[in-house]
Amino acid sequence: MQKPATTDHPVHQLVRERWSPRAFSAQAVPHDVLRSLFEAARWAPSSSNEQPWAFIVATEEDPESHAKLLSTLVDFNQAWARHAPILAIAVSELAFVRTGKPNRNALYDTGAAVAYLTIEATVRGLFVHQMAGFDPHKAIELFSIPSGWEPISAFVIGYPGDPNSLPDPLRERELALRSRKPLAEFVMSGTWGQPAPFLRT
Predict the structure, then answer these.
(1) DSSP H helices in the chain
(2) Average pLDDT for 32-56
(3) How far apart are the C-alpha atoms of 85 and 67, rounded to whole Å?
């Protein structure tokens, strides 16, 4: 299923095509494609080139790990994510390795890495759905995540599936029109709340 964004201004096709479905096909993701997705994440920018990210990944080829990672998700997300072939958790290292000082950009940088992964996935006909709805404490326990690292987001990767496979409330959300805030609400200049002048031209 494709659901390109209706944008107010021209953007690259990849940006228009990226979205977060909940209906996923059981089709396996080839290993070489997965390697390319995480290679894209590897080349994301980060403060002082710290690269403060790590990923726990479970594929459908390892049902035990897949079920273990699935169990960290809230029930709502488990209901649909169980059908995705790839489950993952993004983890951030909260301090700089060289100095031990807090890295206030660690979460930001990890988000950038997932964004790079997501764009690479879109190029390859895959979709990524990121989730805040998971239990980070359970993830730490189940996967022995060391002190100083924080699980910040779960996500699934897969090929698009049939929206009709979803229960009614989720199917309606899957088929609904996409929307975003207008630029004037969040692109400011001069002082907070004042839209940037270039938005008026």
Answers:
(1) 13-17, 31-42, 63-70, 75-81, 106-123, 136-143, 168-175
(2) 98
(3) 11
